[in-house]
Every structure is written in structure tokens, then in C-alpha cells.
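[C-ALPHA CELLS]
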Amino acid sequence: MKIGIVGRPHVGKTTVFNALAHATAAIGGYTRRKQINLSTVSVPDERLERLAAVFQPKKITPATIDYVDVAGTSRALTHPDVEHPERAELDADILGELRTVDALAHVVRFFEDAAVPHVDGSVNGIRDIEAVALEFVFADLQVIEGRLGTLSKQLQNQKSPALQSELRLLQQCQQTLESGKPLRTLSLTVNEEKLIRGYGFLTQKPLLLICNIGEAQLDTATEILNRFAEYEAHPQTAVIVLAAQLEMEIAQLDAPDADMFMAEMGLNQSALERFIQTSYRLLGLITFFSGNANEVRAWTLREGRTAVEAAGVIHTDFERGFIRSECINWADLVACGSYAHARSKGLLRAEGKNYQVQEGDVLTILANPT
């Protein structure tokens, strides 16, 4: 899973990145730099250690999330200043990177800080949400308009059903965007989804709004969340509240000190834990496991995907040569202590390629060599 962290300048994007990634990327003045911060973070999962007690593996491999932190969006993102070509280069880098992510985390500023004034002169969450949404609408429209021009020329010389289908779908996307709505509001078929997947449209990506508050606002976190909960009624959209500066400071502490500090501040979970849980729900993701004497590993899969698709996540050869999977819930395996005991109790099941993998399944894939 890859998540892009976006937002207006000076809203705390890199602070959120540092809190989530336990990183120390420079903050302040970052908006004008060409650098894009990248980090791969392990997903905490206590089930791995308990499964390791069963398998006694040589290594344990958690699932991971890639975080991408980019400079703040502005009108120059989609309308670069021709007098400053270096900005155009940065904008292309930003857009190219964001089109590869699975979801967008939009950091919205709620904290006041006289030393770091808001670029628009005041803190206004709704204005900032709408401003960034509009930038991404413009960015997607530019891609669509360019492709429609190409398709129109191609269809003058050939009557391709595939190209005509793409043309109609892109025209529908164009109409949606021109009405001010993101593409995530469209109900697309599986084939339509595949048809435009390669464009990486920004407004089609699931959106997580992060309300970035100051430490002094912790007591009002629930009130802020409730005020912006209406956005969760929008398709593929979720909202969380974080005190990013505080969470970044916690992330840089040793585990015992971090636990103590969180308890003192009344925080039950770290920013990373809350962010991951919300991201998994937003993207419709589940975790399944594989295990043997060499490795116990956590894998990420879309909810509703099948055993053969899970096999492909582990290795493409397993998907091509899939025969069946042996499946058991992780808690049942831990309670039994071994596959042999689980099999004797009838808890180890043989499942075919159409079996829908469930959260917490431990899979052993049987496949023909290819």
C-alpha cells in the first residue's frame, strides 16, 4: 500500500510524515524544495509474534506501507509559471509521484501558529479542503482533455470498439469533473475501472482527511471530528484528527517513554496505529498470513479477493500453478499450537481458487511448478 501525503503549504504535511514514518525529515521551508520524502513503514501486528511461536521461523516479515510526502499544492501545481521552469519540473514530479499512490492523505490545518502564518492569511479547513480538491480536478481534466484529443484523431482513421469505449468513459469522467465532483463519486464497472486505471486519476483515489490540530486543541478533537464527519458520507472518504507536532515528538521517543507520554496525554493509540486502521478500512484491505520454518509473513489483500489472487500476491508462479490452499484462522492455529493438531481437530480446511480470503487467515498455497 502506498499513500501520498498532500495539502496546502505550511499545514504540517512533513510533520505528519515524520510522525507516521518515525522519520526526521526537515520541516519548515520545505514547500519550495524539489525533494520528495519517501519512507516504508512496517505495519504493527501482534499476531505475527504469536504465529512465530507456532512456526519458530528464521525471520518475521510484517506488511508495509509506503508514505510519500510532497510539497504543498497551489495554483502552480496545474498552471506552472512559464517564467520559472524549475517550478514546472517540480510540479511534474509531484503529479507523477501522486498518480502512483493507492490513496491520498490530505492534511488540513487547524492549529494556529503566528510564527508560521497560513498562506491564505487565516486557518479555514473547509476552504483548504475545497482548494486542494479543485487543484486535483484541474490536474485530472488536463490528462483527460489531452487523451480525448488523441482519441478523436485515432478514431478518424479507425473504428476501434475499444477506443470508442475509452472515449465514452473519458467523456463521462470529463463531465463529472466539470461539474466539480471527484471521479471517486462515479460507480464504475470492473471493466471500466481497468480501462482508466493506468491514468492514476487523483480524484479517483480514496481520500483520508487528516485534521491537524495543536496540542492545546486536544480537548476539542472530538468536536472537530464531528464537525467534519459529513465528509465521510462522500464515497471512499474518511476523516481522522491528529496533533501532528505532538505525535512526531512521541514517535522520536523510545518505546517505554513513548507509552508513558501517551498515557499522560490521554492518547490510547499512536498516530501510526490510528492511521493504519483507518487506511485499511478506507481501502477495503485485510491481512492474511503465510508461515513455515523459514518465515512468518503478513500480506495485504483487498477484501473480497480470492485464494488464487492471494497466491498471486505471494508469488505470481503460485497464481499460475494454483491447485488449492490450506486455510485456518490465525487464532485457531495459535490455540492448537501446530498444523497437525489443527488438522486432527478439523480446523484446517482445503479451499479452492474461488474461496474469499478472510481477515486473519493463514494460507498455505499448493501449486504446480511453472
